[in-house]
Design brief:
The complex is a heterodimer of chains A (312) and B (248). Chain A is of the alpha/beta class and 312 residues long. Chain A has helices spanning 16-26, 42-49, 63-66, 70-81, 93-106, 208-222, 230-234, 265-268, 300-311; strands at residues 2-6, 31-38, 54-61, 86-90, 110-114, 116-119, 122-127, 132-138, 143-147, 164-167, 177-184, 197-201, 225-228, 255-259, 276-281, 294-297. In chain A, helix 6 packs parallel to helix 9. The radius of gyration of chain B is 21 Å and the shape is globular. The chains are: A alpha/beta (312), B alpha/beta (248). The complex binds flavin-adenine dinucleotide and adenosine monophosphate. Chain A: FAD binds at residues 203, 229-230, 243-247, 260-267, 281.
Chain lengths: 312, 248
């Protein structure tokens, strides 16, 4: 059995979601190749070649691939899939965008958000915002899956690396979709998905100014990424890609601090696998306390400054 | 311009999920069911396009049990013009749903399909992308803004790292994210009107589509429960605890 892992990267570096997807893939087979696509991403392919357990790296580059148009990426991946039994894709927004296309082109199911490999044909995945876990078995010859990377540990990096990098041609772009523009949020903080500590703010913050004035300094002091509830994002206190939850990002940091977040199941779906959860909320009945290791019933307006002081 | 909106009947998002003791699935007996929230947003978006004079007809389609009629009526209440229910008691997987929707699209010839990015029961986030692939129409997923002009939809998409805007030539498939719009509340006159709008009932066998499940659900279990920890008195006690837990 051979597995093709599709690398997730930010244009300059591999994300550790690639490494974690590799861990899932290595539970299926020792024949694991990694595809790196994009433009000007040779150095990322070289980095992938150093990951332990990688047999070969495939590198596909074109200006079109850089825009992550699902049609183009799916065409590339489906073309390569002939040589593999499994295609494993990190469940990033890009992965979720093209993975179902690969499955449809191959006329197979998509195994979404795989969080456990039971055996070569059996997988566990969350349903109902993670309130239930489904164990599914497939008899399909080819498997296409997205991997819930928070459920897997990153594979270690091998010394010196041994995999070769092979170039594969990028398919011609589809005409139906064109890239118009993008607005990327630039931040010096760690990425939400990869951070060891996440500080999230909720509706309680009341305004963007307040969110920035309260959450950002705490995050900076802790070297943390910033997250938010949907209510905070909807109200414009934080950008969309800060949203943690069923329909936002799934995070599992060592420490998650929820400030003024009630703890709706859709929010819990995105953070309840964090190692240690702290909740600061003035309502002692807030559901967030039912998952918090340490709960502080207090007004954030005094609790957060106190916390800053206590951190020194 | 004609818009097709697939809508799914799911467990209401406010209802507590209970896993059945025999691990055969989630208990759906006697609980509130509603339209998938993302699909409600899709219907609302279609209705707004109609109100702007861009769309002329909105067709809501659902695949599900007899009660999914109510889901279609909800769509008609928001402002869809007619409904199609492909009635089945079987659980249909995303690939088969996409194939059925493709057949409906071929019969209806819409200029645009707007649907939810994910159904909050199975959380697959797959059907729209699959439908776009099968129809060979462009796709724009996770939309937070849609502008239709000159035979093209400009779709702003919520992606990791921020926002991306794509231009997709019509006909196309768009999937909705939460911030695309806020669906309106149903008014009584609209509820009355909805009941009079046409609703066609079809069977799976009306379509030449293989819907045999590809995946076998071995069991459905409850996730490991997280237990509540302790309440701390103040920030200093919190920091002391975090230090001894080794996370600071
Ligand atoms: C289909 C669907 C998908 C969804 N997906 C997501 C998702 O991915 N992520 C997500 O987060 N939500 C999601 N939601 C929304 C979710 O249901 C909740 O509405 C949302 O999480 C609430 O955000 P909140 O906790 O910030 O706000 P609220 O629920 O309003 O909570 C605010 C909290 O702040 C506390 N508070 C107020 N003032 C203070 C103060 N001064 N000091 C301390 N505490 C204070 C209050 O006690 C309260 O507990 C989704 C909903 C639906 C329907
Ligand atoms: N049984 C169904 N009937 C109608 N539409 C559906 C059905 N299943 C899925 N869909 C549509 O596909 C979207 C994505 O669903 P999924 O891929 O299952 O997460 C939903 O938001 C609906 O718009």
């Amino acid at each position: 059995m051979a597995v093709l892992v599709i690398a997730d990267h930010d244009g300059a570096h591999l994300r550790d979601t690639t490494n974690k997807t590799l861990t899932a893939a290595l539970q299926l087979s020792t024949d694991v190749d990694v595809l790196v696509y994009g433009d000007g991403v040779q150095s990322i392919a070289d980095a992938a070649a150093k990951l332990s357990g990688v047999r070969k790296v495939l590198l596909s580059q074109s200006a079109d691939l850089k825009q992550d148009i699902a049609e183009d990426v799916a065409a590339l991946v489906t073309g390569l899939a002939a040589n593999y039994d499994v295609v494993a894709i990190p469940a990033s927004s890009a992965g979720k965008n093209f993975a179902p296309r690969v499955a449809a082109l191959l006329d197979v199911s998509l195994l979404s958000d795989v969080m456990e490999v039971v055996d070569a044909n059996t997988f566990v995945r969350p349903i109902y915002a993670g309130n239930a876990l489904e164990t599914v078995q497939t008899s399909e010859a080819k498997k296409v899956m997205t991997v819930r990377t928070t459920a897997f540990k990153a594979a270690a990096e091998a010394e010196g690396g041994s995999a070769t990098v092979e170039t594969v041609a990028a398919p011609a772009s589809k005409a139906g979709t064109r890239f118009i523009s993008e607005e990327k949020v630039v931040s010096d903080r760690p990425e939400l998905g990869a951070a060891k500590i996440v500080v999230s703010g909720g509706r309680a913050l009341g305004s963007k100014e307040e969110f920035d004035a309260v959450i950002d300094p705490l995050a900076d002091k802790l070297g943390a990424a910033v997250g938010a509830s949907r209510a905070a994002v909807d109200a414009g206190y934080a950008p969309n890609d800060y949203q943690v939850g069923q329909t936002g990002k799934v995070v599992a940091p060592a420490l998650y601090i929820a400030v003024g977040i009630s703890g709706a199941i859709q929010h819990l779906a995105g953070m309840k696998d964090s190692k240690v959860i702290v909740a600061i909320n003035k309502d002692p009945e807030a559901p967030i306390f039912s998952v918090a290791d340490y709960g502080l019933v207090a007004d954030y307006k005094t609790a957060v400054p106190d916390l800053m002081k206590a951190l020194g | 311009m004609k818009i097709l909106v697939p809508v799914k009947r799911v467990l209401d998002y406010n209802v507590k999920v209970r896993v059945k003791a025999d691990q055969s699935g989630v208990d759906l007996a006697n609980v509130k069911m509603s339209m998938n929230p993302f699909d409600e947003i899709a219907v609302e978006e279609a209705v707004r396009l109609k109100e702007k004079g861009i769309a002329t007809e909105i067709v809501a389609v659902s695949i599900g049990p007899a009660q999914a009629k109510d889901t279609i009526i909800t769509a008609l209440t928001i402002g869809a013009d007619r409904g199609i229910l492909i009635q089945t008691d079987q659980d249909i997987e995303p690939l088969a749903v996409a194939k059925l929707l493709k057949a409906v699209a071929e019969a209806e010839q819409p200029d645009l399909i707007i649907m939810g990015k994910q159904a909050i029961d199975g959380d697959n986030n797959a059907t729209g992308q699959m439908l776009s692939t099968l129809l060979d129409w462009p796709q724009a997923t996770f939309a937070s803004k849609v502008v239709v002009e000159n035979g093209e939809a400009h779709v702003t998409r919520e992606v990791d790292g921020g926002l991306q805007t794509l231009g997709v030539k019509l006909p196309a498939v768009i999937t909705t994210d939460l911030r695309l719009n806020e669906p309106r509340y149903a008014s009584l006159p609209n509820i009355m009107k909805a009941k009079k709008k046409p609703l066609e009932i079809k069977a799976i066998t009306d379509y030449a589509v293989d819907v045999v499940p590809r995946l076998k659900v071995l069991k459905v279990t409850e996730p490991p429960k997280r237990t509540a920890g302790i309440k701390v008195a103040d920030a200093a006690e919190l920091v002391a605890n975090l230090k001894s837990a080794g996370v600071l």
